[in-house]
User: What shape does this take?
Amino acid sequence: MTWKQRYAEAHRKFQDREYPASTKDFGWISPIYPDVRTSNGLTRMILYFLKWEGWRATRITSSGRIIKTPQQQASGVSLMTNKYIPSTTRKGAADVSSTIAGRSVMWEVKIGRDRPSEWQLQEQELERKAGGEYFFIHDADEFFTLYDAFILSLK
Assistant: This one.
Protein backbone atom coordinates (compact mmCIF):
# COMPACT_ATOMS: atom_id res chain seq x y z
CA MET A 1 0.00 0.00 0.00
CA THR A 2 1.39 3.43 -0.91
CA TRP A 3 1.72 6.26 1.59
CA LYS A 4 -1.15 8.08 -0.15
CA GLN A 5 -3.42 5.07 0.31
CA ARG A 6 -2.49 4.80 4.02
CA TYR A 7 -3.01 8.54 4.46
CA ALA A 8 -6.42 8.47 2.72
CA GLU A 9 -7.52 5.40 4.70
CA ALA A 10 -6.63 7.08 8.02
CA HIS A 11 -8.55 10.17 6.90
CA ARG A 12 -11.59 8.10 5.94
CA LYS A 13 -11.61 6.25 9.29
CA PHE A 14 -11.25 9.56 11.13
CA GLN A 15 -14.24 11.02 9.28
CA ASP A 16 -16.30 7.86 9.91
CA ARG A 17 -15.45 8.05 13.62
CA GLU A 18 -15.87 11.81 14.11
CA TYR A 19 -18.66 12.56 11.64
CA PRO A 20 -20.66 9.32 11.25
CA ALA A 21 -23.94 10.94 10.16
CA SER A 22 -22.23 13.02 7.50
CA THR A 23 -20.19 10.17 6.01
CA LYS A 24 -23.23 7.86 6.11
CA ASP A 25 -25.37 10.33 4.18
CA PHE A 26 -22.80 12.00 1.93
CA GLY A 27 -19.70 9.79 1.89
CA TRP A 28 -16.27 10.98 2.85
CA ILE A 29 -14.12 13.76 1.47
CA SER A 30 -10.71 12.74 0.20
CA PRO A 31 -7.77 14.47 1.86
CA ILE A 32 -5.48 17.06 0.35
CA TYR A 33 -2.08 15.42 -0.02
CA PRO A 34 0.85 17.50 1.20
CA ASP A 35 4.01 17.68 -0.90
CA VAL A 36 6.13 15.20 1.07
CA ARG A 37 9.24 16.17 -0.91
CA THR A 38 9.47 19.25 1.31
CA SER A 39 10.18 19.37 5.02
CA ASN A 40 6.97 21.29 5.71
CA GLY A 41 4.86 18.89 3.65
CA LEU A 42 6.30 15.75 5.24
CA THR A 43 5.86 17.25 8.70
CA ARG A 44 2.19 18.04 7.92
CA MET A 45 1.62 14.52 6.60
CA ILE A 46 3.00 13.02 9.84
CA LEU A 47 0.93 15.38 12.02
CA TYR A 48 -2.36 14.72 10.26
CA PHE A 49 -1.84 10.97 10.01
CA LEU A 50 -1.07 10.64 13.73
CA LYS A 51 -4.06 12.78 14.68
CA TRP A 52 -6.37 10.80 12.39
CA GLU A 53 -5.11 7.59 13.98
CA GLY A 54 -6.25 8.95 17.35
CA TRP A 55 -2.89 9.89 18.83
CA ARG A 56 -1.68 13.25 20.19
CA ALA A 57 0.66 15.08 17.82
CA THR A 58 2.00 18.62 18.01
CA ARG A 59 4.33 20.54 15.76
CA ILE A 60 7.34 22.00 17.56
CA THR A 61 8.74 25.25 16.22
CA SER A 62 12.24 25.93 17.46
CA SER A 63 12.96 29.02 15.40
CA GLY A 64 12.54 32.38 17.04
CA ARG A 65 10.22 35.11 15.88
CA ILE A 66 10.42 38.67 14.65
CA ILE A 67 8.42 41.41 16.31
CA LYS A 68 7.98 45.03 15.30
CA THR A 69 9.18 47.51 17.89
CA PRO A 70 9.22 51.31 17.86
CA GLN A 71 12.68 52.86 17.92
CA GLN A 72 13.07 56.52 18.84
CA GLN A 73 15.45 58.40 16.53
CA ALA A 74 17.63 61.34 17.61
CA SER A 75 15.39 63.61 15.54
CA GLY A 76 12.40 62.59 17.67
CA VAL A 77 10.85 60.48 14.91
CA SER A 78 9.74 57.01 15.98
CA LEU A 79 10.42 54.26 13.42
CA MET A 80 9.15 50.69 13.52
CA THR A 81 12.00 48.20 13.37
CA ASN A 82 12.17 44.43 13.35
CA LYS A 83 13.60 42.73 16.41
CA TYR A 84 14.44 39.02 16.55
CA ILE A 85 13.31 37.18 19.69
CA PRO A 86 15.10 33.83 20.09
CA SER A 87 13.04 30.74 20.81
CA THR A 88 12.88 29.26 24.29
CA THR A 89 12.60 25.75 22.84
CA ARG A 90 15.62 23.61 23.69
CA LYS A 91 18.02 22.95 20.81
CA GLY A 92 17.51 19.52 19.31
CA ALA A 93 13.74 19.41 19.81
CA ALA A 94 12.08 17.28 17.14
CA ASP A 95 9.68 18.69 14.54
CA VAL A 96 6.74 16.63 15.84
CA SER A 97 6.07 15.57 19.43
CA SER A 98 3.52 12.78 19.79
CA THR A 99 2.13 10.36 22.33
CA ILE A 100 1.21 6.94 20.99
CA ALA A 101 -0.40 4.42 23.34
CA GLY A 102 1.04 6.28 26.32
CA ARG A 103 4.58 6.47 24.93
CA SER A 104 6.39 9.63 23.92
CA VAL A 105 7.48 9.53 20.27
CA MET A 106 9.42 12.34 18.59
CA TRP A 107 9.68 12.69 14.80
CA GLU A 108 12.46 14.79 13.24
CA VAL A 109 12.09 15.44 9.50
CA LYS A 110 15.25 15.44 7.37
CA ILE A 111 14.89 16.13 3.64
CA GLY A 112 17.66 15.92 1.03
CA ARG A 113 21.12 16.51 2.45
CA ASP A 114 19.81 17.66 5.83
CA ARG A 115 21.56 15.72 8.62
CA PRO A 116 20.95 15.47 12.39
CA SER A 117 22.71 18.09 14.49
CA GLU A 118 24.69 17.17 17.60
CA TRP A 119 21.82 18.59 19.71
CA GLN A 120 19.29 16.37 17.94
CA LEU A 121 21.45 13.31 18.53
CA GLN A 122 21.71 14.26 22.22
CA GLU A 123 17.92 14.74 22.42
CA GLN A 124 17.44 11.35 20.77
CA GLU A 125 19.65 9.74 23.41
CA LEU A 126 17.83 11.54 26.26
CA GLU A 127 14.40 10.60 24.88
CA ARG A 128 15.32 6.95 24.54
CA LYS A 129 16.86 6.82 28.03
CA ALA A 130 13.56 8.23 29.35
CA GLY A 131 11.59 5.43 27.67
CA GLY A 132 10.43 7.31 24.59
CA GLU A 133 11.44 7.20 20.94
CA TYR A 134 13.04 9.78 18.66
CA PHE A 135 13.04 9.00 14.93
CA PHE A 136 14.67 10.73 11.97
CA ILE A 137 12.34 10.65 8.95
CA HIS A 138 13.56 11.20 5.38
CA ASP A 139 10.41 10.36 3.40
CA ALA A 140 6.82 9.19 3.77
CA ASP A 141 7.65 5.50 3.22
CA GLU A 142 10.26 5.58 6.00
CA PHE A 143 7.72 7.19 8.34
CA PHE A 144 5.21 4.38 7.77
CA THR A 145 7.90 1.69 8.14
CA LEU A 146 9.03 3.13 11.50
CA TYR A 147 5.46 3.82 12.64
CA ASP A 148 4.37 0.25 11.86
CA ALA A 149 7.43 -1.20 13.62
CA PHE A 150 6.74 0.96 16.67
CA ILE A 151 3.06 -0.10 16.79
CA LEU A 152 4.10 -3.76 16.49
CA SER A 153 6.61 -3.35 19.33
CA LEU A 154 3.75 -2.31 21.63
CA LYS A 155 1.99 -5.66 21.26
